[in-house]
Design a protein that fits this description.
By secondary structure, the chain is of the alpha/beta class. The chain folds into two domains: 50 residues, no CATH class; 171 residues, Aminopeptidase (3-Layer(aba) Sandwich). It has six helices and seven strands. The structure holds zinc ion. The site of zinc ion has 5 residues, from loops.
């Protein structure tokens, strides 16, 4: 006698037929894209294989490594320096009886300074006396280059000054100190603290640039007594200025 709990052989047979039919239909459907995702072996690069039709995802592949890894070493700071060629783009500056103009000395020295510092690898802006770029100018240092007048017989020497009432007196004093020492060493001119004028301490550019940019003005020598240095050895003048700026930016 048949037990109530025994499965009906006919029912089992129909279930099995149904399972086989579903599996058969599914196998047919995969290549058509109706079952869109299939697993495949990966290629050697471990990259996704792009094919028409179904999306293919590789199995056992490493994570794609196309995302660039950012460099861990920070870019070193490139010093930036502004050089104002005194009076350039505006006027002649001091003029000697024989026609020698201060602006020509200033431009010659400034161009040499810019070339030397650029060769040294720094970022340098050559600026005119009333350059629009001076407003809010940001750099590691700004230096305005001038020369003293022709009308003081017997007077020799140079001077460097920073702004009266400086916003950053410590770095600006260091800038003046570096420039003074190295300029004196290179040119063998004496620092002349007694003819530093109001005009130097209240130099217009000091109050136009960003107050955090250390700035100074240099009078490289007198156009009468120091003429030979200024006009025939401008590379020495420029070398002293460059040494002073490197002293300030890189320290000693
Ligand atoms: Zn001047």
């Amino acid at each position: 006698m048949k037990k109530e709990t025994d499965p009906d052989p006919w029912a089992v047979a129909w279930v099995m037929r149904a399972v086989v039919l579903i599996a058969f239909l599914a196998a047919l459907a995969v290549p058509t894209g109706l079952v869109p995702i299939i697993a495949v072996a990966t290629d050697t690069q471990g990259e996704l294989t792009q094919v028409e039709g179904p999306i293919v995802i590789s199995l056992g592949a490493p994570e794609p490594t196309s995302t660039p890894i950012p460099a861990l070493t920070p870019t070193p700071h490139l010093p930036r320096i502004g050089i104002v060629a005194g009076h350039s783009g505006h006027d002649s500056g001091a003029v000697c009886p024989d026609g020698l103009q201060e602006v020509d000395i200033n431009i010659d020295v400034s161009q040499r300074v810019v070339r030397l510092l650029t060769d040294y690898g720094w970022d340098v802006d050559l600026l005119e006396e009333f350059d629009v770029r001076l407003f809010g100018y940001q750099a590691d240092a700004l230096l305005s280059i001038h020369a003293d007048s022709c009308n003081v017989p017997g007077k020799t020497g140079f001077k460097v000054a920073r702004a009266e009432g400086s916003f950053i007196p410590d770095p600006e004093d260091r800038l003046v100190d570096c420039l003074s020492r190295h300029y004196a060493e290179h040119t063998e001119l004496e620092f002349d603290p007694f003819t530093i004028t109001y005009d130097m301490r209240r130099y217009h550019a000091f109050y136009e640039i960003n107050p955090n940019t250390p700035a100074a003005i240099i009078e490289t020598g007198f156009m009468l007594e120091d003429r030979e240095l200024l006009t025939e050895r401008p590379e020495v003048v420029a070398g002293g200025i460059v040494a002073g700026l490197i002293c300030f930016v890189e320290g000693e």
